[in-house]
Amino acid sequence: MSRSHARLGRAGPTLVLAACGLFFLLPLITLARYALQNVPTILLGWSTLFDKWSLTGITKAFGEPEFRDALTLSGKLAVGTVIVTLALLVPTAIWVHMRLPRARAAVEFLTVLPYVIPAIALVAGIVVVKPHARWFLNSDWSLVPFYVVLALPFTYRSIDAGVRAIDLNTLVDASRSLGATWITTLRRALIPNLRTAIISSAFLTTAVVLGEFTIASVLLKPTLPQFMRTYVGREPQAGYGLNFLALVATTALFALLSVLTRKRTARST
Fold it and tell me: How far apart are CA 264 and CA 269, in angstroms?
């Protein structure tokens, strides 16, 4: 009986993982077949599973001038959002843990609000402010503050978990007792120990920027999600191929994040 219970206990998590894998993979395979097989949709079935696979749809999208511009803009926005997010949240998380521990609950509540409040509510506020701030909203960089807000629920928790994992007060006291300034303490004592949390935060922010559509659409910014929406209307198969590639790239991004953080953890132990 004990052996059977042990086997059932091992089989349960395996079945859950298998179900989650199928839930993720089956729609992905369906999308890949529609986007990458040069077979009429009505003929897609088991008999044509290995017929006429091609990357022409994706490569066709790469040849669009708008694609290069959209990818460049989204890349710049991702870099800018990551820099602003880290510059704001790393000192904030450290200061809250050291000087305002009672405010941690309030800060966590504020950072989760963008996850609770839908993006369309933020868009409504942008529409109201737009006539009075055209000098700022006309710039491509105007999306950065909004993306920082949208990424807060994910990025702050990543950095907060990293701060909790280190002996913050000991590191700061040791650095300050040796005559280091706050900037030096942050740069040479704290950031190296928060490297895993910072990498996680940067990857999560990049994923948010590369997937956000609503705000870019309202402000008429030709970001990558905007291009993908319009391109699907012109070239459905190639457009869905581009969506498939973006989904695979995002998944690979998180897989790389898992590998990097695992290596950091293994080295530290």
Answer: 9
